[in-house]
Amino acid sequence: MSDLSRLNLKADIPSVDASEKQKLYQELSSDPAVIRLLKTHNIPEQSLWDNLYTFARWQKEVAPCRGCKSLSQCRQKKKGYHMGLSFEGLLVETLEACNYEREKQQALRHLNQYLVSDLGEEFQECFFDRINYEEEGSAYIRSARAAYQCYLEGKGAYLYGNMGTGKTYLAACASNELAREGKKPVFIHYPSFCDRLARMYYSGEYRREAEMCRFTDLLVIDDIGAEEVTARNRMVLLAILDDRMKNQKMTWFTGNGDFEMLQNHLRYDASGEDIASADRIIERIRILAKPILVEGNDRRIPACDK
Q1: Nearest in space to 188 (alpha carbons), one of 278, 239, 253
Q2: Which of 106, 170, 174, 230 is the most exposed place for a label (fewest CB within 10 A)?
């Protein structure tokens, strides 16, 4: 009797011709990928014999990963993941991240520090040290350096200018830098925050997010001035800024208009004019944040359209 015939013949698919099973075993046991799998996960060779068709399925599932050079080329059903096998006394099927996905997760680990994040995917890996100053105009370089200096000094900034000049990018650099240091930022897109406030106000659910905005290490209020102004929005914003001013918390803003334009925007709601509330909000923003004009071309317009 051969050595193979002495093995435990409990296969994962019963009633299979012995010669067919032995042929499949020989094929799998000589596959470098299978050999590497057994070694990496300390899977005994007996398990290969007992679960030939599971290993064959694994072999087929991971085949599209061979020669893959980036996540953008991924051909798996779930991008960045493939079938995996591990051994815990029994063979266990898992869903395993590929090397590229693991690298991406490592690169985005700082995002776990955010208490609240409205960051778009395109801003998740923005950092000051990744700005290519050789490709930027002098005006934008001045703005970026001024913003970075505010960050280094732990000061707030009010980044304003035309749409698409890179205000949100610089604010994301600041919040990502802080997160990378292990601190807790909040990055809110202010119109979206106001929408959430409207939905959750009467249930009181908004208080948790507002509380985090009050005391987080860094609060970024992105796109202020683009929201629909209401008395409720002004009241909540004023309470947040009041606490941050009293506790000297770093606060950043982005908006299209300067202080005067923002002040005029905040005065009016559906009920009419409230000069006092608008003035009080602007007063706190002036104390919290240094105004920085961000100049440059609209980065949202494709180069071919410019």
Answers
A1: 253
A2: 106
Nearest to 191 by CA among 219, 229, 239, 232: 229
- DSSP label at residue 145: H
Q: Is 61 exposed, middle or buried (0-12, 13-18, 19+ CB in 10 A)?
A: middle
Contact (Cβ atoms closer than 8 angstroms) between residue 256 and residue 161? yes
Bridge partner residues of 255 (DSSP): 160
The residues facing 86 across adjacent strands are 92
Q: Taking the mean position of all CA atoms in its chain, how far away is CA 300? A: 20
Strands (DSSP E) found in 118-184: 156-160
Q: Please list, in sequence order, all residues whose beta carbon lies within 8 angstroms of the beta carbon of residue 266, skipping any fewer than 6 positions away.
A: 229, 234, 277, 278, 281, 282
Q: Give me 255's structure tokens.
A: 């908006």
Residue of 112, 106, 104, 110 whose CA lies nearest to 80:
104
Residue pLDDT, tens place only, 98-146: 887 788 778 789 999 999 999 999 999 999 999 999 889 999 999 999 9
The first and second tokens of residue 281, run together, are 């909000």
Per-residue pLDDT tens over the stretch 54-86: 999 999 999 888 888 888 888 888 888 889 999
- Bridge-based pairing of strands 218-222 and 185-189 is parallel
Q: Are strands 185-189 and 116-117 parallel, antiparallel or unpaired?
A: parallel
Residue with tokens 């093995």: 7
194 close to 227: Cβ distance less than 8 angstroms: yes
- Total-model pTM: 0.75
Paired sense of beta strands 116-117 and 156-160, if any = unpaired
